[in-house]
Amino acid sequence: MGIIGTGFMGRVHARSARLAGAVIVGVAGSRPDRSQGPYSSADELIESGAIDLVHICTPNHLHAPLALKAIAAGVAVICEKPLATDGETAALMAARADEAGLVATVPFVYRFHAMVREARQRVARGDVGRVTLIHGSYLQDWLLRPEDDNWRVDPELGGPSRTFADIGSHWCDLAEFVTGERIRAVSAQTGVVQRERAGHAPVLTEDVVTVQFRTAHGALGSVTTSQVSPGRKNRLFLEVAGTEQSLAFDQEQPEKLWVGGREGSTALVRDPGTLTAEAMPYSPLPPGHAQGYHECFEAFVADSYAALRGEHRDGLPTFDDGARAARVCDAVLASAASGRWVEC
């Protein structure tokens, strides 16, 4: 394997790759002094002939050119999200990967919580009845203050959307994955809370987003995303209501799945002895030993590598899923700009 990008996500990918048994033959950074191994650039690494798969963990504007170069070289890809900074390019990337017959995945890793798999199976077997309402949020505070800054704020590096592309994409993917519903149309608002940041004035990418939506089968929904909500760190919350039951998952309390009914509710706690067969593979630890983000990432990378070996893994997020998220993001921006409902 090779890794492009030496920031936080590069380190997360490297850890999961090693745990999955990969040999990392090179790491390419933004400068030669940040690279490790015999390859001084991303191009050298991709074209070396020494790797089966490359992890792309760079700023967003580099995802498409690097992934397309890897696909052209016959190299499988794990690419960070957003897959591209616009839906058309993301769709092209997915099409190229499909044409080449290459494994190409996107780390929508919240799919890999055992209790998310449990929720998905319960919806699929009809426990909630007909899905009528999907709602939730993804809230952070790491860009709360004007002195808080990051390359994602710059649309030249991060793309035209920041908050929704970065974390709204996770929420929408999770909502569609759990429910099997597809968001059909959106009505969105975006807001910039900090209009000036260190190095960026004016700020052109959004801090907060609210979205109403409807699905292809008529369910209604809403989601709020924010990177400026004080005290919220990575609070991804999803609730699904149906004609029989409701289910709720909070990423900051991933050991539990709330199950609600007219006669009462309960908190189902992760226990390999009581989970459905579909959730079991993603619950490797005994009950009482909390699982979290690292375990999700490890499971995602392990499943991607299994696909590289020709094995099937249910629920593995591919470039098609990344292109889907980019299309929804485009619709959100178009709706916010026009004040109209936009189909996606």
From TrEMBL:
Transmembrane feature ranges: none
Keyword 4Fe-4S: no
Domain GFO/IDH/MocA-like oxidoreductase residue range list: 116-247
Keyword terms: Oxidoreductase
Gfo/Idh/MocA-like oxidoreductase N-terminal domain residues: 2-106
SUPFAM superfamilies, per the entry: Glyceraldehyde-3-phosphate dehydrogenase-like, C-terminal domain, NAD(P)-binding Rossmann-fold domains
Domain of life: Bacteria
The protein, known as: Gfo/Idh/MocA family protein
Source organism (scientific name): Nonomuraea mangrovi
